[in-house]
Amino acid sequence: MRAERRIGFIGDLPARLHTRRERVAGYRTALAETELPYDRALVAHAHAPEGAAATARLLAVSDPPAALLSGSSVMTIGV
Asked: What confidence tens digit (pLDDT) does each residue in 5-61 have?
């Protein structure tokens, strides 16, 4: 797949958080609607202060995403 079509997602924690589950579901729905495959390697979750570290992990994968979607406004600061 062309790199510019790979979109990563960085969400917040904890996993049981309703808004977190909804945002991940929206990310997966958007990928499906645009016929992009879901790749677990492009998904990271962290507490907001660790957004920069989560970003670094995603950008370090062998085929990194061309874009990142942040799961919250606070997470965006770290991303």
From this structure: 899 999 988 878 898 899 999 999 999 999 999 999 999 988 878 889 999 999 999
pLDDT digits (tens, 9 = 90+) for 18-28: 988 999 999 99
The pTM for the full model equals 0.86
Q: Report residue 16: phi and psi, to 5°.
A: -80, -5
What b/e readout covers 1-21, taking b as 16+ CB neighbours within 10 angstroms?
eeeeebbbbbbbeeeeeeebe
Give the C-alpha separation, 29 to 45, whole Å. Answer: 18
Say what the alpha-carbon torsion angle 28, 31, 35, 37 is, to the nearest 10 degrees.
Answer: -70
The amino acid at residue 46 is: A
